[in-house]
Amino acid sequence: MGAEANRDIKSLTLKELQNWILETGEKAYRAKQLYEWMHVKLARNYDEMGNIPKALKEKCEAAFDYTALKAIKVQESQIDGTKKFLFELPDGNMVESVWMRYKHGNSVCISSQVGCRMGCSFCASTLNGWERNLLPSEMLEQIYAITLLTGERVSNVVVMGTGEPLDNYDNLLRFIELLTDENGLHISQRNVTVSTCGIVPNMRRLAQEKLQITLALSLHAATDEKRRKLMPIANTYSLDELIEACAYYFKQTGRRITFEYSLISGVNDTKEDVRELTDLIGGLNCHINLIPVNPIKERDFKQPDRAAAESFKNKLEKNGINVTIRREMGRDIDGACGQLRRKYIAGQS
Known about the structure:
about 35% helix, 12 helices, ten-stranded mixed beta sheet, single chain
């Protein structure tokens, strides 16, 4: 972990906090108390920590930043109750997060970077470029702030908002460790999904961690030529390398891969695409999540109609592929990644 993150108390593991507490001459049990205030009781500042002595609070304030995100804007869908949050970070940058209610519990989609450098052609997140990585605390805080604002527990976390999580690898790993720690929110690893556009070396590194999270790969095309037009990362890693990395991930973790596939009318939703997709992933233990593309005004991609999406799904199922069409959430509130932040920055709020 870099020096920058070390100054941030919410990014410390309980063990690191215990070590610091002992170094400062405080009683060991104070670390557990502090950790619980931050990660269970979700204190917004040191003042809220009732059983922490003033002298220790002052030591903490002198040694560490205390990250608490401020909600600048909240949109609520009139269709399904989905809520979209625009949060201000301590340095004035902004990130988006989405809260969704499902039958199985509440799910939060968080951002892992301010902006994104991946340049995928159908995504609003990347249009303003990349600013910086988020710290573990800034990823956690999106969940903590939403929990406090909604008054409801979060049971599932998806790292699929703005940014490429595997481009912020070390902070992502620390975030997962803190999120799933039994002394914190204790969300099950199996209830955490991490999305990637396909940074192959880090997919392999992640496989070796042997976590029980779900890895979701943004595929979007079944040939290198077509994928290169949609996703610049495809110029670096071929589909063959990508599929090998997916097979390796399954072998190491026993967790099936989810393929995210944005359906773009007339671009990647033809009979030929069905055949090529079946050839590409037919041998893997996997699931395809079809996502009718979110139109953004900067691009001219069109969403296929429902019948075309269903037809694509049915053909894949006939070929033995496990597939669903993602239920659209929050479509009436700038549901696609990056749209709310762009509007706000452009002064359209």
